[in-house]
Automatic annotation (TrEMBL):
<dbReference type="Pfam" id="PF04073">
    <property type="entry name" value="tRNA_edit"/>
</dbReference>
<feature type="domain" description="YbaK/aminoacyl-tRNA synthetase-associated">
    <location>
        <begin position="56"/>
        <end position="172"/>
    </location>
</feature>
<dbReference type="InterPro" id="IPR007214">
    <property type="entry name" value="YbaK/aa-tRNA-synth-assoc-dom"/>
</dbReference>
<dbReference type="InterPro" id="IPR036754">
    <property type="entry name" value="YbaK/aa-tRNA-synt-asso_dom_sf"/>
</dbReference>
<protein>
    <submittedName>
        <fullName>YbaK/EbsC family protein</fullName>
    </submittedName>
</protein>
Amino acid sequence: MRAPIGTFEHARPAPECLDELVAPVADALRTWADGVPAENVLYVDTDPDRADTAVFVEHYGRDLLETSANCVVVAGRRGGDTSFAACLVLSTTRADVNGVVRRRLGARKASFAPMETATGLTGMEYGGITPVGLPAGWPLLVDPAVVALPYVLVGSGRRRGKLLVPGEAFVRLPGAEVVEGLGVPAAG
């Protein structure tokens, strides 16, 4: 099947590609209880050597610049306690970690989680972290602009491959909350 966004020649329903996904993502798709059928989540194979944004959109379609989202792991600290959350914002923006996210977590300080922490806690590869299959109990903060898109390109849990997910599906993922002002213009 042809992908609904980008110039990917082959897109397959993600539940048919479980062997190509990391365990947390495959498990999430096996137990998908969303109002959007799991078969509407698509998997596309991509070249990890073309992961840089400029090269990626040049190769797989310029429309992906406006229809892709980044999932970042944030650590919030208050006293000796650390809490984690994932933020999903359009690739053309950045998550307001020090403002919106810090307040939402009730933290004194918030920052991007170190790579080893993010990959260790999620079971996903750096550069491929996705909101599908996050650890239980984590808040998933989603920018409204992501939800508004018919399809969004996100990581698959690995650097190779991406998921194409209907925007409306993100609000039904465990711990999801749409947060106004989460995505702010990226510094140019």
